[in-house]
Amino acid sequence: MQIHERLMNVFYQALLETIRKARFTIDGVERDFDIFRTERMGNILRVMFYLDDYSGPVTHATLLDKDDVILISGTTNFHKENDGFMYVFDIPIIPEGGVAP
After folding, report:
1. Is 100 within the bounds of a domain?
2. How far apart are CA 82 and CA 94, in angstroms?
């Protein structure tokens, strides 16, 4: 069976309606950021967050839903300077059998 493009659109829309913010640990302090931008690139949903105002080591990143439930989380290892920084969560949706037009 093949998944049709319409169902893929439903999946992406449901994700966009569910995702609300990201939480980053910057210099040992958890800080929440609102979504800066989203885009769909083929079978990948990109959720972007612009980190500004803070500096220091960024050691953890978490994507949260509207109820503050963790959707994606993991360890990070980079140092954020005083200028802005764009962090991107790439969420792939890969159907078995491909997508029919």
Report:
1. no
2. 37
